[in-house]
Amino acid sequence: MKRIYFNNCLTSQPAPEVIETVTQNMNNNYYFPEDFIEMGTKTTKFLDDSKKIIADSIGAEIKELHLTSGGTSANNLAIKGFLTANSDKGTHIICSVIDYPDILTNAAFFEKSGFDVTYLPTDKDGFIDLNDLKNSLRNDTILFMTTFANHTVGTIQPIKKYREILDAADHKIAMFVDACEAYARIPFDVKDLGIDLLSISAHKIHGPQGIGALYQRKGIILGQVQHGVDRIDNLYTGGLSIPSIAGFAKAVELAFDNLETNISKIRKLSDNLLSKIESTIPYTLLNGPRGRNRVPHNINISFDFIEGEAIMMMMDMYGVSISTGSACASKGLKPNYVLMALGRDHEQSHSSMKFTLSRYNTLEEIDYTVKKLADVVKELRARSPLYKQ
Known about the structure:
By secondary structure, the protein is of the alpha/beta class. It has two domains: 4-12 and 259-383, Aspartate Aminotransferase, domain 1 (Alpha-Beta Complex), CATH 3.90.1150.10; 16-257, Type I PLP-dependent aspartate aminotransferase-like (Major domain) (Aspartate Aminotransferase, domain 2, 3-Layer(aba) Sandwich), CATH 3.40.640.10. It is built from 13 helices and twelve strands. It has helices spanning 16-28, 38-58, 71-86, 101-112, 130-136, 159-167, 190-193, 242-257, 259-280, 308-317, 337-341, 346-350, 363-383, and strands at 4-5, 65-68, 92-96, 116-120, 141-147, 174-178, 197-201, 212-216, 284-286, 298-303, 320-321, 352-356. The model has no long low-confidence stretch (mean pLDDT 94).
């Protein structure tokens, strides 16, 4: 049986059409944009066409989109660029304790650099209390940062409600959104939501690794944090892979041409997986919200009395790829910071498993996975000193 892949939060399998597109462009369209010569002019038009496809998918304009080497580079360009360019207007930042590591590490960096950071707590499902956000606003607050869909438990943050609270302040407060886990999993429009800065990544949506994008709303000023030759983008200087950009645009076309169908299929698969695990395996706990308040592809479950690492390794032997904890957390044995913030204890955190699905998964794969998972859990619990029948 071919490997079953349920680790799409970490990265996704490139679509066959994307691989074909990248390969064709590696052979025929590798040149950088340049004026006055045929190959350069052709590449300039190709870049504009590709950026339009990506920009249209989030409701942005071409001039508002910056191509980057991925989500992390987009996050850094946005956060560092905004704070360095606007520190004269204030030095207070707000984020939550369960945000993506890119946000939290940037917050810590600027905190050491003299900024003041408010870290908002969340409830048991990963939602910020709206009153907490409102009460945290100050005259020197200039930036609110959030993760659209939580990377660990899939919680979808109510971005529009956050925007309403920020707009009620007596001065402009920008909002940055890491949307790498939400992009192509839920529909959204940056203008409708009032987002100022937003990051997306290709390899999470069956595109190539090493390419992403940053949305910068017209009128939002960013400082230059990366310096060099302006080949493709004035913020992300230097070269980017033209074939990868082509693959990114193709992945976007594939995802958004059938967005509602893809979302419906993935949600049906994840609902089926959750239902079968809960009805087959006792002593389990869903982490994060149920239903439409979580992205369709993410199911995070704690299996009492056993270690997630052991489950992951044994399932790998059966040809099933899943993950434990946060895909971008430390490789050490520390409990997952998101789950701990949601009120889970050390045992529940260490026993958590994250299944992140894609449109390429099937019901047959889920049936096989649950059968093997039940066997693995039973065997590990039989060995566990914590488990008493």
